[in-house]
Amino acid sequence: MRNMLRRAAAPAFAAVTAALITTGTAQAAPAADWAGCPYGAVCVYPQNQNPAVSPSHIYWTYGAHNLSNQYGNHWVLNNQYDGAVVELCLSYNANDCTSSIAAGHGEYRDLSPINSLHLRPHYN
């Protein structure tokens, strides 16, 4: 009887172990969407959406991205990779950049004074 139970339990134990290993690997992998922001992108969320759930703007390319009609508090999530940075700039075309958000980080910021975002690779 014990042997039958052991044989029956072995596949279940193996399945649970495999699930734990897979889950642990998936959680540790850096390539993942984050609060609806695709991996490799920078996302801006609607005003006062807290917590961040569904982005209103998604930016994929390096360079300047001008903002319009972004007032009040918004989440800005940097889900880029390889240390890429997003800078928040007071003027259009990525001029007068005053702060930055590192890859894998986000900030809940008043975007009223921010007129552009500058996505750039990490400089050594």
UniProtKB/TrEMBL annotation:
Domain of life where this protein originates: Bacteria
Alphabetically ordered keywords of this record: Signal
UniProt keyword Signal, yes or no: yes
KW Signal (keyword) present: yes
UniProt signal peptide: 1-28
Name of this chain's protein: Peptidase inhibitor family I36
Species, as recorded: Streptomyces machairae
